[in-house]
Amino acid sequence: MPQRCCQYAGWQLPSLTEDYGTFCRLRRNDCGVTAVHISLKVEFGGGLELLFDNQRSHKLTLPARVPLDNSTSSPPSSPPSPQNNEYEGETKPVDVAYLIHWLRHHLLKERAELFMEGDTVRPGILVLINDTDWELEGEGEYVIKNGDEVVFISTLHGG
Amino acid sequence: MPRLCALCATQRPILKRPKTGQQICKTCFFHVFETEVHNTIVEAQLFQPGDRVAIGASGGKDSTVLAHVMKTLNDRYNYGLELFLLSIDEGITGYRDDSLETVKQNQKEYNLPLKILSYNELYGWTMDSIVEAVGRKNNCTFCGVFRRQALDRGAAMLGVDHIVTGHNADDVAETVLMNIMRGDIARLGRCTAICTKGEDTIKRSKPFKYTYEKEIVMYAYFKHLTYFSTECIYSPDAYRGHARSFLKLLEAARPSAIIDIIYSGEACEVSEEATKELKERKTCKRCGYMSSNDLCKACTLLEGLERGMASAGITDRGRKQLEASGPAPDGLRTIPFFQMNAQSPSQSAPDDGRDSAPPMPAVVGVEAG
Ligand SMILES: [Zn+2]
Ligand SMILES: [Zn+2]
Question: Which of residues 105-134 of A touch B (CB under 8 A)?
Answer without folding.
Answer: 122-124, 126, 128, 131-133
